[in-house]
Amino acid sequence: QVHLVESGGGLVQPGGSLRLSCAASGSIFDINYMGWYRQAPGNQRELVAVINSGGTTNYADPVKGRFTIARANAKNTVVLQMNRVTPEDTAVYYCSAAVVAGIPPREDNYWGQGTQVTVAL
pLDDT at residue 73 above 90? Predict the structure, then answer.
């Protein structure tokens, strides 16, 4: 069984910074990509940023230049550094990972439980 656990959410003022972390645990053979998605009330879940095992990143347009995604492969961890946040960044942020696990190994997509980020004065 594979688990993703997020941490680092909370309340931050506009223009401030926040750092989210997601750690994958379990009988993991490899992780092909890890990413962050978010869902604001009344909206669909949307991509924020993803990074693959080679370090290639992809960002949603609203966060380009403000957010940075990075991986620590040895720890099966992905972090999202959020800078210059705005109220529009308020959402539940979910970690996602394409994990190779099991015998025989196969890739499945996993999700964390989500962490709330609120940007307000």
Answer: no
